[in-house]
Amino acid sequence: MDYMIGVDIGTTSVKTVLYDTKGKMQGYSNNLYPLYQDVPDMAEEDPDEIFSAIIDGLTTVMRKADLKDGQLHGVSFSAAMHSLILLDENHKPLTRAITWADNRAVKYADELRENGVGKQLYEKTGTPIHPMTPLSKLIWLRNEKPDLFKQARWFVGIKEYVIYKLFGTLQEDYSIANATGLFNIFKMDWDDQALEVAGITRDQLPKLVDTTDQISGMNQDYAGVIGMDPKTPFVMGASDGPLANLGVDAITPGVVAVTIGTSGAVRVVTDKPKIDPKGRVFCYYLSKDHWVVGGPVNNGGIVFRWVRDQLFAPEKITAEQMQVDSYDLLTEIASKVPAGSDGLIFHPFLGGERAPIWDANARGSFFGLTRTHSRAHMVRAALEGIVYNLYTVMLALEEVVGKPSSIQATGGFARSALWRQMLADIFEQDVTIPESPEGTALGAATLGMYALGLIDDLSEVKNFIGVANVHHPNPETYEAYRTLVPIYIRLSRQLQSEYKNIAEFQRKHPQQVSKEK
Protein backbone atom coordinates (compact mmCIF):
# COMPACT_ATOMS: atom_id res chain seq x y z
CA MET A 1 0.00 0.00 0.00
CA ASP A 2 1.21 3.52 -0.85
CA TYR A 3 0.50 6.58 1.28
CA MET A 4 0.36 10.39 1.23
CA ILE A 5 0.07 12.81 4.17
CA GLY A 6 -2.02 15.97 4.02
CA VAL A 7 -1.20 18.65 6.60
CA ASP A 8 -3.85 21.34 7.17
CA ILE A 9 -2.50 24.33 9.13
CA GLY A 10 -5.70 25.95 10.38
CA THR A 11 -6.71 28.89 12.55
CA THR A 12 -6.97 26.91 15.79
CA SER A 13 -5.22 23.63 15.10
CA VAL A 14 -3.16 21.62 12.64
CA LYS A 15 -4.73 18.44 11.28
CA THR A 16 -2.38 15.78 10.00
CA VAL A 17 -4.04 13.04 7.96
CA LEU A 18 -2.53 9.92 6.42
CA TYR A 19 -4.26 8.72 3.24
CA ASP A 20 -3.67 5.73 1.07
CA THR A 21 -3.50 6.47 -2.65
CA LYS A 22 -7.19 5.61 -3.00
CA GLY A 23 -7.99 8.59 -0.78
CA LYS A 24 -8.98 6.55 2.29
CA MET A 25 -8.00 7.97 5.68
CA GLN A 26 -5.53 5.68 7.45
CA GLY A 27 -4.28 7.93 10.26
CA TYR A 28 -5.26 11.20 11.93
CA SER A 29 -3.94 13.72 14.45
CA ASN A 30 -5.39 17.08 15.55
CA ASN A 31 -3.04 19.35 17.51
CA LEU A 32 -4.40 22.57 19.01
CA TYR A 33 -2.71 25.90 19.72
CA PRO A 34 -3.93 29.14 21.32
CA LEU A 35 -5.07 32.35 19.67
CA TYR A 36 -3.68 35.43 21.43
CA GLN A 37 -5.98 38.44 21.79
CA ASP A 38 -4.07 40.63 24.23
CA VAL A 39 -5.53 43.92 22.95
CA PRO A 40 -8.67 44.85 21.01
CA ASP A 41 -8.71 43.65 17.38
CA MET A 42 -5.61 41.46 17.89
CA ALA A 43 -5.64 37.86 16.69
CA GLU A 44 -2.15 36.32 16.78
CA GLU A 45 -0.56 32.89 17.11
CA ASP A 46 2.91 31.80 18.09
CA PRO A 47 4.65 30.45 14.95
CA ASP A 48 6.83 28.12 17.00
CA GLU A 49 3.79 26.68 18.79
CA ILE A 50 2.29 25.98 15.37
CA PHE A 51 5.54 24.42 14.16
CA SER A 52 5.64 22.19 17.26
CA ALA A 53 2.04 21.13 16.58
CA ILE A 54 3.03 20.15 13.03
CA ILE A 55 6.00 18.12 14.26
CA ASP A 56 3.78 16.44 16.89
CA GLY A 57 1.12 15.66 14.28
CA LEU A 58 3.55 14.15 11.81
CA THR A 59 5.25 12.17 14.58
CA THR A 60 1.94 10.79 15.86
CA VAL A 61 0.72 9.73 12.42
CA MET A 62 4.04 8.16 11.45
CA ARG A 63 4.36 6.16 14.68
CA LYS A 64 0.81 4.86 14.56
CA ALA A 65 1.08 3.88 10.90
CA ASP A 66 4.39 2.01 11.25
CA LEU A 67 5.08 2.41 7.54
CA LYS A 68 7.67 0.39 5.68
CA ASP A 69 10.45 2.04 3.65
CA GLY A 70 9.12 3.54 0.44
CA GLN A 71 5.44 3.37 1.39
CA LEU A 72 5.14 7.08 2.17
CA HIS A 73 5.36 8.95 -1.13
CA GLY A 74 5.16 12.46 0.24
CA VAL A 75 3.61 15.20 2.37
CA SER A 76 1.54 18.10 1.06
CA PHE A 77 0.50 21.31 2.83
CA SER A 78 -2.63 23.35 3.21
CA ALA A 79 -2.48 26.57 5.22
CA ALA A 80 -4.80 29.33 6.35
CA MET A 81 -4.46 32.46 4.24
CA HIS A 82 -3.35 36.00 5.09
CA SER A 83 -0.93 35.34 7.97
CA LEU A 84 2.10 37.61 8.38
CA ILE A 85 5.32 37.06 10.33
CA LEU A 86 8.26 39.46 10.40
CA LEU A 87 11.65 37.74 10.43
CA ASP A 88 15.10 39.18 11.14
CA GLU A 89 18.18 38.54 8.99
CA ASN A 90 18.69 35.20 10.77
CA HIS A 91 15.10 34.14 10.00
CA LYS A 92 14.08 34.50 13.66
CA PRO A 93 10.53 35.79 14.27
CA LEU A 94 10.22 39.40 15.35
CA THR A 95 6.46 39.00 15.73
CA ARG A 96 3.94 36.28 16.31
CA ALA A 97 1.90 35.19 13.31
CA ILE A 98 -0.67 37.92 12.70
CA THR A 99 -3.71 35.98 11.46
CA TRP A 100 -6.52 36.75 9.04
CA ALA A 101 -8.78 37.54 12.02
CA ASP A 102 -6.59 40.45 13.19
CA ASN A 103 -8.37 43.77 12.53
CA ARG A 104 -5.78 46.29 13.76
CA ALA A 105 -5.10 47.48 10.20
CA VAL A 106 -8.71 48.57 9.72
CA LYS A 107 -7.84 52.29 9.45
CA TYR A 108 -5.41 51.67 6.61
CA ALA A 109 -7.70 49.27 4.78
CA ASP A 110 -10.45 51.91 4.95
CA GLU A 111 -8.09 54.51 3.50
CA LEU A 112 -7.21 52.24 0.57
CA ARG A 113 -10.87 51.63 -0.13
CA GLU A 114 -11.74 55.32 0.06
CA ASN A 115 -8.90 56.76 -2.01
CA GLY A 116 -9.38 54.48 -5.02
CA VAL A 117 -6.00 52.75 -4.72
CA GLY A 118 -7.67 49.72 -3.20
CA LYS A 119 -9.86 49.24 -6.27
CA GLN A 120 -6.81 49.43 -8.54
CA LEU A 121 -5.02 46.80 -6.48
CA TYR A 122 -8.05 44.50 -6.24
CA GLU A 123 -8.40 44.49 -10.04
CA LYS A 124 -4.82 43.18 -10.33
CA THR A 125 -4.57 40.94 -7.27
CA GLY A 126 -8.09 39.50 -6.95
CA THR A 127 -7.83 40.04 -3.19
CA PRO A 128 -10.42 42.40 -1.65
CA ILE A 129 -9.09 45.25 0.47
CA HIS A 130 -9.50 44.34 4.13
CA PRO A 131 -7.38 44.39 7.33
CA MET A 132 -7.04 40.60 6.98
CA THR A 133 -4.49 40.92 4.18
CA PRO A 134 -0.73 41.17 4.68
CA LEU A 135 -0.90 44.26 2.41
CA SER A 136 -2.99 46.14 4.99
CA LYS A 137 -1.00 44.72 7.91
CA LEU A 138 2.28 45.91 6.37
CA ILE A 139 0.94 49.46 6.00
CA TRP A 140 -0.24 49.36 9.63
CA LEU A 141 3.12 48.07 10.88
CA ARG A 142 5.08 50.60 8.83
CA ASN A 143 3.04 53.48 10.26
CA GLU A 144 2.43 52.37 13.84
CA LYS A 145 5.42 50.14 14.62
CA PRO A 146 8.13 51.71 12.44
CA ASP A 147 11.10 50.46 14.48
CA LEU A 148 9.86 46.88 14.31
CA PHE A 149 9.10 47.25 10.61
CA LYS A 150 12.64 48.51 9.90
CA GLN A 151 14.20 45.56 11.78
CA ALA A 152 12.49 43.05 9.47
CA ARG A 153 14.53 41.41 6.74
CA TRP A 154 11.76 39.05 5.57
CA PHE A 155 7.96 39.14 5.45
CA VAL A 156 6.41 35.66 5.34
CA GLY A 157 3.33 33.64 6.26
CA ILE A 158 3.07 30.62 8.53
CA LYS A 159 3.58 28.01 5.78
CA GLU A 160 6.73 29.72 4.55
CA TYR A 161 8.09 29.79 8.09
CA VAL A 162 7.39 26.07 8.52
CA ILE A 163 9.05 25.25 5.18
CA TYR A 164 12.10 27.27 6.19
CA LYS A 165 12.36 25.50 9.56
CA LEU A 166 12.15 22.09 7.88
CA PHE A 167 14.27 22.72 4.78
CA GLY A 168 16.27 25.93 5.27
CA THR A 169 14.86 27.70 2.22
CA LEU A 170 12.28 30.49 1.86
CA GLN A 171 9.68 29.91 -0.84
CA GLU A 172 5.99 30.69 -1.22
CA ASP A 173 3.38 29.04 -3.42
CA TYR A 174 1.25 31.04 -5.83
CA SER A 175 -1.93 30.29 -3.89
CA ILE A 176 -0.72 31.67 -0.56
CA ALA A 177 1.00 34.59 -2.34
CA ASN A 178 -2.26 35.30 -4.18
CA ALA A 179 -4.00 35.94 -0.84
CA THR A 180 -1.46 38.50 0.40
CA GLY A 181 -2.82 41.35 -1.72
CA LEU A 182 0.71 41.75 -3.13
CA PHE A 183 0.49 39.27 -6.04
CA ASN A 184 -0.62 40.07 -9.59
CA ILE A 185 -2.83 37.20 -10.78
CA PHE A 186 -2.46 38.15 -14.43
CA LYS A 187 1.36 38.37 -14.38
CA MET A 188 1.83 35.57 -11.81
CA ASP A 189 4.36 37.69 -9.95
CA TRP A 190 4.58 40.17 -7.09
CA ASP A 191 2.81 43.40 -8.08
CA ASP A 192 5.03 46.50 -8.21
CA GLN A 193 2.29 48.94 -7.18
CA ALA A 194 1.21 46.76 -4.24
CA LEU A 195 4.80 46.46 -3.03
CA GLU A 196 5.23 50.23 -3.22
CA VAL A 197 2.00 50.82 -1.28
CA ALA A 198 3.11 48.29 1.35
CA GLY A 199 6.56 49.84 1.59
CA ILE A 200 8.58 46.69 0.89
CA THR A 201 10.68 45.27 -1.93
CA ARG A 202 10.49 41.90 -3.66
CA ASP A 203 13.81 40.81 -2.19
CA GLN A 204 12.13 40.87 1.23
CA LEU A 205 9.65 38.21 0.11
CA PRO A 206 10.13 34.48 -0.50
CA LYS A 207 10.81 32.96 -3.90
CA LEU A 208 7.56 32.23 -5.77
CA VAL A 209 6.84 28.63 -6.81
CA ASP A 210 3.85 26.69 -8.13
CA THR A 211 1.54 24.78 -5.79
CA THR A 212 2.82 21.50 -7.25
CA ASP A 213 6.49 22.26 -6.61
CA GLN A 214 8.41 19.73 -4.51
CA ILE A 215 11.12 20.15 -1.92
CA SER A 216 13.18 17.51 -0.10
CA GLY A 217 16.19 17.23 2.17
CA MET A 218 14.50 17.79 5.51
CA ASN A 219 16.57 18.86 8.51
CA GLN A 220 18.01 15.61 9.89
CA ASP A 221 17.05 16.41 13.50
CA TYR A 222 13.38 16.96 12.68
CA ALA A 223 13.32 13.94 10.37
CA GLY A 224 14.69 11.81 13.21
CA VAL A 225 12.06 13.04 15.67
CA ILE A 226 9.23 12.45 13.18
CA GLY A 227 10.56 9.10 12.04
CA MET A 228 10.53 10.08 8.38
CA ASP A 229 13.15 9.64 5.68
CA PRO A 230 14.63 13.15 5.15
CA LYS A 231 14.50 12.52 1.39
CA THR A 232 10.69 12.29 1.51
CA PRO A 233 9.34 14.90 -0.95
CA PHE A 234 7.15 17.67 0.44
CA VAL A 235 4.73 19.29 -2.00
CA MET A 236 4.19 23.02 -1.43
CA GLY A 237 0.41 22.69 -1.66
CA ALA A 238 -1.97 25.66 -1.62
CA SER A 239 -4.14 27.75 0.67
CA ASP A 240 -6.99 26.20 2.60
CA GLY A 241 -9.93 27.67 0.66
CA PRO A 242 -8.99 26.35 -2.78
CA LEU A 243 -7.95 23.00 -1.30
CA ALA A 244 -11.28 22.70 0.49
CA ASN A 245 -12.97 22.92 -2.92
CA LEU A 246 -10.68 20.22 -4.28
CA GLY A 247 -11.25 18.03 -1.22
CA VAL A 248 -15.03 17.96 -1.72
CA ASP A 249 -14.82 17.53 -5.52
CA ALA A 250 -16.07 21.05 -6.22
CA ILE A 251 -13.63 21.80 -9.04
CA THR A 252 -16.06 21.49 -11.95
CA PRO A 253 -17.52 24.84 -13.10
CA GLY A 254 -20.89 25.40 -11.45
CA VAL A 255 -20.25 23.15 -8.45
CA VAL A 256 -20.17 25.33 -5.34
CA ALA A 257 -18.42 24.47 -2.09
CA VAL A 258 -19.92 25.89 1.09
CA THR A 259 -17.71 25.54 4.14
CA ILE A 260 -18.53 26.43 7.74
CA GLY A 261 -15.83 25.77 10.27
CA THR A 262 -14.62 28.42 12.71
CA SER A 263 -15.23 30.82 9.83
CA GLY A 264 -16.91 30.05 6.52
CA ALA A 265 -16.82 30.51 2.75
CA VAL A 266 -18.68 30.02 -0.52
CA ARG A 267 -16.44 29.17 -3.49
CA VAL A 268 -16.57 27.93 -7.09
CA VAL A 269 -13.78 26.97 -9.52
CA THR A 270 -13.22 28.61 -12.92
CA ASP A 271 -10.57 27.96 -15.57
CA LYS A 272 -9.19 31.50 -15.53
CA PRO A 273 -9.08 34.51 -13.16
CA LYS A 274 -12.38 36.38 -12.70
CA ILE A 275 -12.83 39.73 -10.99
CA ASP A 276 -16.03 41.18 -9.49
CA PRO A 277 -16.57 44.80 -10.66
CA LYS A 278 -18.05 45.51 -7.21
CA GLY A 279 -15.08 43.98 -5.40
CA ARG A 280 -17.13 41.59 -3.26
CA VAL A 281 -15.43 38.26 -4.01
CA PHE A 282 -11.87 36.98 -4.17
CA CYS A 283 -10.06 35.12 -6.94
CA TYR A 284 -7.35 32.70 -5.73
CA TYR A 285 -5.05 30.28 -7.53
CA LEU A 286 -5.26 26.52 -6.99
CA SER A 287 -3.31 25.04 -9.91
CA LYS A 288 -2.92 25.53 -13.63
CA ASP A 289 -6.40 26.09 -15.13
CA HIS A 290 -8.03 26.05 -11.68
CA TRP A 291 -8.93 29.37 -10.06
CA VAL A 292 -11.24 29.63 -7.07
CA VAL A 293 -13.70 32.54 -6.97
CA GLY A 294 -15.68 33.13 -3.80
CA GLY A 295 -16.19 34.94 -0.57
CA PRO A 296 -15.02 34.21 2.97
CA VAL A 297 -16.95 35.09 6.12
CA ASN A 298 -15.47 35.67 9.57
CA ASN A 299 -18.45 34.36 11.43
CA GLY A 300 -19.18 30.65 11.23
CA GLY A 301 -18.89 28.14 14.04
CA ILE A 302 -17.24 30.76 16.23
CA VAL A 303 -20.67 32.41 16.54
CA PHE A 304 -22.22 29.13 17.65
CA ARG A 305 -19.52 28.85 20.30
CA TRP A 306 -20.35 32.37 21.52
CA VAL A 307 -24.04 31.47 21.76
CA ARG A 308 -23.18 28.33 23.74
CA ASP A 309 -20.76 30.03 26.12
CA GLN A 310 -22.66 33.27 26.72
CA LEU A 311 -26.33 32.30 26.44
CA PHE A 312 -26.33 28.60 27.33
CA ALA A 313 -23.65 28.22 29.99
CA PRO A 314 -25.87 26.04 32.24
CA GLU A 315 -26.67 23.72 29.34
CA LYS A 316 -22.97 23.50 28.52
CA ILE A 317 -22.27 22.28 32.06
CA THR A 318 -25.19 19.86 31.90
CA ALA A 319 -23.92 18.45 28.60
CA GLU A 320 -20.46 17.91 30.09
CA GLN A 321 -21.97 16.09 33.07
CA MET A 322 -24.08 13.92 30.78
CA GLN A 323 -21.07 13.33 28.50
CA VAL A 324 -22.95 14.56 25.44
CA ASP A 325 -21.87 17.14 22.89
CA SER A 326 -23.04 20.59 23.99
CA TYR A 327 -23.55 21.70 20.38
CA ASP A 328 -25.83 18.72 19.76
CA LEU A 329 -27.87 19.76 22.78
CA LEU A 330 -28.20 23.31 21.45
CA THR A 331 -29.24 22.22 17.95
CA GLU A 332 -31.87 19.98 19.56
CA ILE A 333 -33.19 23.05 21.40
CA ALA A 334 -33.12 25.12 18.19
CA SER A 335 -34.98 22.43 16.26
CA LYS A 336 -38.09 23.05 18.41
CA VAL A 337 -38.40 26.56 16.97
CA PRO A 338 -40.03 27.02 13.52
CA ALA A 339 -38.03 28.12 10.47
CA GLY A 340 -37.50 31.87 10.59
CA SER A 341 -37.38 31.92 14.41
CA ASP A 342 -40.78 33.64 14.58
CA GLY A 343 -39.37 36.77 12.98
CA LEU A 344 -36.14 37.05 14.97
CA ILE A 345 -33.14 37.95 12.77
CA PHE A 346 -29.51 37.78 13.82
CA HIS A 347 -26.61 39.50 12.05
CA PRO A 348 -23.65 37.30 13.01
CA PHE A 349 -20.92 39.94 12.72
CA LEU A 350 -19.20 39.28 16.06
CA GLY A 351 -15.73 39.69 14.56
CA GLY A 352 -16.26 42.25 11.82
CA GLU A 353 -17.06 40.76 8.42
CA ARG A 354 -15.44 39.98 5.14
CA ALA A 355 -17.67 38.96 2.21
CA PRO A 356 -19.87 40.38 0.98
CA ILE A 357 -19.68 43.71 2.91
CA TRP A 358 -15.91 43.73 3.67
CA ASP A 359 -16.37 45.82 6.80
CA ALA A 360 -14.08 45.10 9.76
CA ASN A 361 -16.22 47.45 11.86
CA ALA A 362 -19.38 45.36 11.39
CA ARG A 363 -21.02 44.27 14.64
CA GLY A 364 -23.62 41.66 15.53
CA SER A 365 -27.24 42.32 16.41
CA PHE A 366 -30.59 40.69 17.08
CA PHE A 367 -33.51 42.36 15.29
CA GLY A 368 -37.19 41.77 15.93
CA LEU A 369 -36.98 40.69 19.58
CA THR A 370 -40.30 40.55 21.46
CA ARG A 371 -41.36 39.23 24.85
CA THR A 372 -42.48 36.02 23.19
CA HIS A 373 -38.96 35.14 22.02
CA SER A 374 -36.89 32.75 24.11
CA ARG A 375 -33.27 31.63 24.21
CA ALA A 376 -34.30 28.81 21.90
CA HIS A 377 -35.33 31.41 19.32
CA MET A 378 -31.99 33.16 19.79
CA VAL A 379 -29.91 30.06 19.13
CA ARG A 380 -31.92 29.19 16.02
CA ALA A 381 -31.74 32.79 14.80
CA ALA A 382 -27.96 32.71 15.25
CA LEU A 383 -27.66 29.54 13.16
CA GLU A 384 -29.96 30.98 10.51
CA GLY A 385 -28.05 34.29 10.50
CA ILE A 386 -24.81 32.51 9.65
CA VAL A 387 -26.50 30.82 6.67
CA TYR A 388 -28.29 34.03 5.61
CA ASN A 389 -24.89 35.68 5.39
CA LEU A 390 -23.44 32.82 3.33
CA TYR A 391 -26.44 33.11 1.02
CA THR A 392 -25.71 36.81 0.43
CA VAL A 393 -22.20 35.76 -0.60
CA MET A 394 -23.75 33.27 -3.03
CA LEU A 395 -25.90 36.04 -4.54
CA ALA A 396 -22.77 38.13 -5.18
CA LEU A 397 -20.96 35.13 -6.61
CA GLU A 398 -23.83 34.41 -9.03
CA GLU A 399 -23.29 37.82 -10.63
CA VAL A 400 -19.68 36.86 -11.43
CA VAL A 401 -19.89 33.16 -12.36
CA GLY A 402 -23.59 32.39 -12.80
CA LYS A 403 -26.02 30.20 -10.88
CA PRO A 404 -24.67 27.06 -9.20
CA SER A 405 -25.51 23.63 -10.57
CA SER A 406 -24.99 21.91 -7.21
CA ILE A 407 -23.68 22.54 -3.70
CA GLN A 408 -21.12 20.51 -1.79
CA ALA A 409 -21.00 21.39 1.92
CA THR A 410 -18.34 20.64 4.47
CA GLY A 411 -16.86 21.82 7.74
CA GLY A 412 -17.68 21.25 11.39
CA PHE A 413 -21.28 22.39 10.89
CA ALA A 414 -21.88 19.46 8.55
CA ARG A 415 -22.21 17.20 11.59
CA SER A 416 -25.52 18.90 12.39
CA ALA A 417 -28.58 17.65 10.49
CA LEU A 418 -30.48 20.83 11.44
CA TRP A 419 -27.80 23.10 10.01
CA ARG A 420 -27.50 21.04 6.84
CA GLN A 421 -31.25 21.29 6.28
CA MET A 422 -31.14 25.05 6.93
CA LEU A 423 -28.54 25.41 4.21
CA ALA A 424 -30.72 23.53 1.70
CA ASP A 425 -33.83 25.50 2.70
CA ILE A 426 -32.28 28.99 2.60
CA PHE A 427 -30.30 28.34 -0.60
CA GLU A 428 -33.31 26.44 -2.05
CA GLN A 429 -30.94 23.89 -3.52
CA ASP A 430 -29.95 20.29 -2.90
CA VAL A 431 -26.96 20.10 -0.58
CA THR A 432 -24.56 17.16 -0.71
CA ILE A 433 -22.33 16.34 2.25
CA PRO A 434 -19.22 14.43 1.16
CA GLU A 435 -18.25 11.50 3.33
CA SER A 436 -14.67 12.64 3.96
CA PRO A 437 -14.68 14.68 7.20
CA GLU A 438 -11.40 16.48 6.45
CA GLY A 439 -11.90 17.96 3.00
CA THR A 440 -9.02 20.44 3.19
CA ALA A 441 -6.44 17.84 4.22
CA LEU A 442 -7.78 15.52 1.49
CA GLY A 443 -7.43 18.38 -0.99
CA ALA A 444 -3.81 18.85 0.06
CA ALA A 445 -3.11 15.12 -0.25
CA THR A 446 -4.82 14.96 -3.66
CA LEU A 447 -2.78 17.89 -4.98
CA GLY A 448 0.31 16.14 -3.61
CA MET A 449 -0.56 12.89 -5.37
CA TYR A 450 -1.04 14.81 -8.62
CA ALA A 451 2.28 16.63 -8.20
CA LEU A 452 4.09 13.34 -7.57
CA GLY A 453 2.47 11.56 -10.52
CA LEU A 454 0.41 9.16 -8.39
CA ILE A 455 -2.78 10.33 -10.13
CA ASP A 456 -3.16 11.75 -13.63
CA ASP A 457 -5.67 14.50 -12.98
CA LEU A 458 -7.14 16.41 -10.02
CA SER A 459 -10.61 15.22 -11.09
CA GLU A 460 -9.70 11.81 -9.69
CA VAL A 461 -10.65 13.22 -6.30
CA LYS A 462 -14.20 12.13 -7.20
CA ASN A 463 -13.06 8.56 -6.56
CA PHE A 464 -11.81 9.48 -3.09
CA ILE A 465 -15.00 10.81 -1.55
CA GLY A 466 -18.33 9.20 -0.86
CA VAL A 467 -21.67 10.83 -0.16
CA ALA A 468 -22.79 10.82 3.46
CA ASN A 469 -26.00 12.85 3.11
CA VAL A 470 -28.08 14.68 0.53
CA HIS A 471 -30.56 17.26 1.85
CA HIS A 472 -33.42 18.55 -0.30
CA PRO A 473 -35.04 21.93 0.39
CA ASN A 474 -38.30 21.80 2.27
CA PRO A 475 -41.04 23.81 0.46
CA GLU A 476 -42.76 24.45 3.80
CA THR A 477 -39.95 26.84 4.77
CA TYR A 478 -39.85 28.83 1.52
CA GLU A 479 -42.32 31.52 2.59
CA ALA A 480 -40.52 32.33 5.85
CA TYR A 481 -37.02 32.45 4.39
CA ARG A 482 -38.03 34.25 1.19
CA THR A 483 -39.59 36.98 3.36
CA LEU A 484 -36.79 37.23 5.94
CA VAL A 485 -33.69 37.12 3.74
CA PRO A 486 -34.50 40.44 1.97
CA ILE A 487 -35.10 42.05 5.39
CA TYR A 488 -31.74 40.68 6.55
CA ILE A 489 -30.02 42.19 3.50
CA ARG A 490 -31.72 45.59 3.81
CA LEU A 491 -30.85 45.76 7.50
CA SER A 492 -27.21 44.98 6.74
CA ARG A 493 -27.06 47.97 4.40
CA GLN A 494 -28.85 50.32 6.80
CA LEU A 495 -26.75 49.36 9.81
CA GLN A 496 -23.49 49.71 7.91
CA SER A 497 -23.59 53.49 8.28
CA GLU A 498 -23.35 53.07 12.07
CA TYR A 499 -20.89 50.19 12.35
CA LYS A 500 -17.86 52.48 12.34
CA ASN A 501 -19.33 54.67 15.09
CA ILE A 502 -20.07 51.81 17.45
CA ALA A 503 -16.73 50.14 16.68
CA GLU A 504 -14.84 53.35 17.51
CA PHE A 505 -16.73 53.62 20.81
CA GLN A 506 -15.78 50.05 21.67
CA ARG A 507 -12.12 50.68 20.85
CA LYS A 508 -12.11 53.67 23.20
CA HIS A 509 -13.78 51.60 25.92
CA PRO A 510 -12.20 48.17 25.45
CA GLN A 511 -13.69 45.15 27.12
CA GLN A 512 -11.54 42.55 28.82
CA VAL A 513 -9.94 40.30 26.22
CA SER A 514 -8.54 36.83 26.67
CA LYS A 515 -6.45 34.05 25.20
CA GLU A 516 -8.71 31.47 23.57
CA LYS A 517 -7.82 27.82 23.15
In short:
This protein is of the alpha+beta class. 39% of the residues lie in helices and 21% in strands.
Topology:
Elements: E1 3-9, E2 13-20, E3 25-32, E4 44-45, H1 47-65, E5 72-79, E6 85-87, E7 97-98, H2 106-115, H3 117-125, H4 134-144, H5 146-151, E8 154-156, H6 158-167, E9 171-173, H7 174-178, E10 183-184, E11 189-190, H8 192-198, E12 207-209, E13 214-215, H9 220-226, E14 234-239, H10 240-247, E15 255-260, E16 264-270, E17 282-287, E18 290-297, H11 301-311, H12 313-322, H13 326-334, E19 345-347, E20 365-367, H14 375-401, E21 406-410, H15 417-427, E22 431-434, H16 439-451, E23 467-471, H17 478-508
Parallel strand pairs: 1-5, 5-14, 9-12, 15-21, 21-22
Antiparallel strand pairs: 1-2, 2-3, 4-7, 6-8, 10-11, 13-14, 15-16, 16-18, 17-18, 19-20, 22-23
Helix pairs in contact: 2-4, 4-8, 10-16, 11-14, 12-13, 13-14, 14-15
Radius of gyration over C-alpha positions, nearest whole angstrom: 22 Å
CATH-level-4 superfamily name of the largest domain: ATPase, nucleotide binding domain
From the 3D coordinates, which CATH architecture of the largest domain would you assign? 2-Layer Sandwich
Structural class: alpha+beta
Q: Provide a count of the helices.
A: 17
| Fraction of residues in β-strands | 15-25%
Helical content (DSSP H or I, runs of 4+):
25-40%
Spatially, the strands of the biggest sheet line up as: 17-18-16-15-21-22-23
Report the span from N to C terminus.
37 Å
Q: Please state the overall shape, judged from the principal axes of the Cα atoms.
A: globular
What do the pLDDT scores average to?
95
Oligomer: single chain
Largest sheet: 7 strands, mixed
